[in-house]
């Protein structure tokens, strides 16, 4: 076949292909598209052709198995040897001998917790180790209301609030809390600890800035860790240092893209017991244009004329606080937590807060209990007066009369945090572990005299974490919780027992 014949054959083949192609439905539209595309942008046509051929080749390429045995085969003996040598990393640090001894001696309460509690040994002791400030655990009307709710709604909704977990009592409790605080809206969480640790990462993300008090509690620290934000610390309750840090942040970020900025602090500090200077914090917040997240876990239901919290106590409008977080499991003796603020702040959390989105809703009986307690605080503010009188009585027995300890709590705080005086620690050269051992001996001595108190417990450091990496560490302390369920004489006797226990242990360890 010469060149002319080959050319003629090729023309006939192309003509036949063209005829057959035009018989295909939509071929005319495709040809017009190709011609138009080629005339307007030939490079685009080339790229599309390449992608088409690549797709065809990919679809027609031979399949290969992912289960091919390409790893090194081990004998049964080698597998057993590797398994025997493998040691899993511990989930928690091993217990020290001090912790083991403490666990062996830990008292066990039989029956309900109250001002007078019965132990497993049969002894009845005065209980100043629980958060039963208003003796609500023994309130019969609350029990009756909880039983009625349990019979109506069951134990729990067993579903997240955003799916089928929300019930009418939850919405009523949210409205009750918002009305009690004076905020626009409120959102209810099922766990107190998870509330603040979910609120923080719901608003503060990577690249945002958080300025926090060095003494904030463990739940706040976990929330900041989850958020992956940039953290700046200021010295505990030091407003001058807070101002310095805020000014430094503003100066550093002046020429950078705008980020969200938050101040995070507590109303009554869980680890020290003292109170925030909220008036000054709000002033600095406005001056440097930061948002404020206030954790009122221990001040809600305690401070103010009706237990509204530190805002009522210090005369600060609740609207000055962007996010007000509180617990229903402490002074309120119910369960769960809440975050109150504007309607926009609350609605954002219903889709963005992990503890709300992925956790089962609060049991209905706990929601109704919280609403009942708030109603009691509204109608009977004398509840708070009795606790405050008992707190003053206990203060008179301990802080000014003991030569060994002093109280770091605010005088309004029914949780008294008692630490060894600095001169005692310095003269005896006591480190933290030695202080904890002395304090535990004081707890044991008080229990031997029928008074049950406890120590301030902190979360242990992570495995292989040094003191420098851990940052601020709290000083070991005793914790004494005041309740209105005890009379003035009983409070005086309890304080005397605690003071004598402290003195006896310290004198025995000279």
Please tell me about this protein's structure:
By secondary structure, the chain is of the alpha/beta class. It contains 21 helices and 15 strands. The strands form three sheets. The protein has a seven-stranded mixed β-sheet, with helices on both faces. Helix 6 (140-153) runs antiparallel to helix 16. The longest helix is centred in the N-terminal third of the chain and has 21 residues, at 3-23. The model has no long low-confidence stretch (mean pLDDT 89).
Please render the helix and strand layout as text.
Elements: H1 3-23, H2 27-40, H3 42-60, H4 76-85, H5 97-105, E1 109-110, E2 116-119, E3 124-127, H6 140-153, H7 161-165, H8 168-181, E4 185-189, H9 192-203, E5 209-213, H10 218-227, E6 230-234, H11 239-252, E7 261-266, H12 278-288, E8 291-295, H13 310-314, E9 323-327, E10 337-341, H14 343-352, H15 354-357, H16 364-379, H17 382-398, E11 405-407, E12 415-420, H18 422-428, H19 432-448, E13 451-452, E14 454-455, H20 467-470, E15 478-481, H21 488-508
């Amino acid at each position: 076949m010469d060149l002319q014949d080959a050319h003629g054959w090729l023309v006939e083949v192309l003509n036949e292909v063209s005829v057959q192609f035009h018989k295909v439905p939509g071929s005319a539209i495709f040809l017009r598209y190709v011609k138009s595309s080629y005339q307007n942008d030939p490079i685009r046509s080339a790229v599309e052709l390449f992608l088409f051929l690549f797709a065809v080749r990919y679809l027609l390429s031979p399949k290969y198995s992912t289960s091919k045995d390409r790893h090194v085969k081990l004998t049964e003996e080698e597998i057993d040897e590797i398994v025997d040598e493998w040691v899993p990393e511990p989930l928690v640090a091993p217990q020290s001998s001090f912790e083991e001894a403490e666990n062996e001696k830990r008292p066990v309460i039989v029956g309900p917790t109250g001002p007078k509690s019965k132990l497993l040994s049969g002894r009845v002791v005065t209980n100043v180790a629980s958060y039963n400030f208003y003796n609500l655990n023994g309130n019969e009307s609350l029990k009756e209301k909880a039983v009625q709710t349990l019979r109506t709604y069951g134990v729990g909704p067993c579903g997240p609030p955003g799916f089928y977990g929300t019930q009418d009592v939850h919405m009523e409790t949210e409205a009750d809390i918002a009305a009690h605080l004076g905020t626009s809206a409120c959102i209810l969480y099922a766990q107190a600890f998870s509330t603040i640790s979910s609120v923080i990462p719901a608003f503060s993300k990577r690249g945002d800035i958080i300025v926090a008090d060095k003494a904030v509690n463990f739940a706040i620290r976990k929330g900041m860790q989850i958020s992956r934000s940039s953290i700046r610390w200021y010295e505990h309750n030091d407003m001058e240092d807070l101002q310095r840090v805020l000014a430094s942040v503003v100066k550093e970020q002046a020429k950078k893209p705008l980020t969200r900025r938050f101040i995070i602090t507590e109303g009554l500090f869980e680890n020290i017991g003292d109170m925030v200077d909220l008036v000054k914090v709000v002033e600095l917040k406005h001056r440097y244009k930061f948002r404020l997240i206030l954790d009122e876990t221990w001040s809600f239901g305690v401070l103010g004329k009706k237990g509204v919290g530190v805002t009522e106590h210090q005369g600060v409008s609740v609207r000055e606080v962007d996010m007000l977080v509180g617990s229903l499991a402490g002074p309120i003796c119910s369960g769960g937590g809440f975050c109150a603020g504007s309607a926009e702040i609350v609605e954002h959390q219903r889709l963005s807060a992990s503890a709300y989105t992925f956790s089962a809703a609060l049991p209905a009986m706990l929601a109704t209990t919280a609403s009942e307690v708030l109603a009691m605080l509204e109608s009977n503010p004398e509840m708070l007066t009795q606790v405050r009188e008992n707190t003053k009585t206990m203060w008179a027995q301990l802080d000014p009369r003991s030569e060994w300890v002093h109280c770091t709590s605010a005088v309004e705080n029914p949780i008294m945090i008692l630490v060894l005086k600095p001169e005692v620690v310095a003269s005896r050269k006591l480190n933290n572990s030695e202080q904890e051992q002395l304090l535990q001996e004081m707890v044991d001595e008080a229990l031997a005299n029928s008074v049950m108190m406890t120590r301030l417990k902190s979360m242990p450091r992570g495995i292989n974490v040094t003191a420098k990496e851990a940052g601020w560490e709290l000083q070991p302390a005793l914790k004494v919780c005041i309740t209105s369920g005890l009379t003035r004489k009983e409070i005086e006797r309890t304080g005397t027992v605690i003071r004598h226990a402290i003195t006896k242990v310290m004198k025995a360890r000279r």
